[in-house]
Amino acid sequence: MKAARLHQYNQSLQIDEVDLPKPIGEEVIVKVGGAGVCHSDIHFMKGDWKDILSVKLPLTIGHETAGYVEEMGESVPCFSKGDAVAVFGGWGCGICQACKSGDEQLCNTPRWPGLSQYNGGYAEYLHVPSYRFLVKADGLDPKNIAPLTDAGLTPYRAVKKVRHLLNPNTYSLLFGVGGLGCYAIQYLKLLSPTNVITVVRSEDKAKLAKEMGSDFVINSKTNDVVSEVKKITFNQGIDVVIDVVSSNETLTTGISCLRKKGTIVLVGLMGTSFNLPVVESVLNEFNVIGSLWGNYNELTEVINLAKMNKLKILVNHYKLSDVGKAIGNLESGKIRGRAVLVP
Length: 343
Ligand code: FEH
Ligand code: ZN
Ligand code: ZN
Prior knowledge:
Quinone Oxidoreductase, Chain A, domain 1, Rossmann fold, 2 domains, six-stranded parallel sheet, 11 helices, binds (1R)-1-phenylethane-1,2-diol, binds zinc ion
């Protein structure tokens, strides 16, 4: 089968012909319908994380996959060949405390496809270690819902962590309206009555944020975010910041906008560190929390929202052989929604 593989860090992916293993036991071979392209793939391919996510190359990239059940091992219940499925990418060991608590994406020994020694979905087929990592997506088209397994799942977990803090008098500030931000806006409006302010860097993204349901938009290229937030919130400040970028700049600005006892959720992985003002954080009792990906049940909930037609899903399809173009367009900010490889 064809697979887009990383042979060396900081080099383009190569389309290779590779063997496809025969599934045994709980294993399932999924025919890839769509493989989303994530900024994390770019970090990984550049070698930014090679010390924390160390793998032996070559490796097939891709952790945002949906497709069809192609072949099953002898111990796979409740699935049939041809079933449309979303692939939960937090492949855990199943027995550590995180896994047993249901948060397999936080497993002590993660087996994330395309981000660990397990080949990912930038390929014609994906070898999934267990049917436990599949969510039935009947009635949905895998080439369109692949982004829900990461870009759609990740902000969902983040918003669920803070929805109890939100009411019609609160303001939520979101940085970024890329692959994840499009869903973050939708969830903030679907899961809470909060007022959403989205920070963007272009008029095109400002339009997109409004289309996704943002109540207010601030273009940080032409406006000072902190003073605009003061104006919009009548000097009240921000109750919850959801940062799907997490650069030093967005996090520093986010903290500066928080009201007393405000919360900032770090979701994106663009940055490495940022300065948290100690005295201000203590005197205001700021809450700073991280949120990683999502768990299996949260993915099931996101898929159900799609089945109920409650989500706007923006995708740009690319052939597997055009993976370089998709990555280039993502890096240059040309992607509106999510780039999805269709093998
Ligand atoms: C990045 C690194 C490790 C795990 C998950 C991720 C995210 O891209 C998933 O949203
Ligand atoms: Zn990702
Ligand atoms: Zn585990």
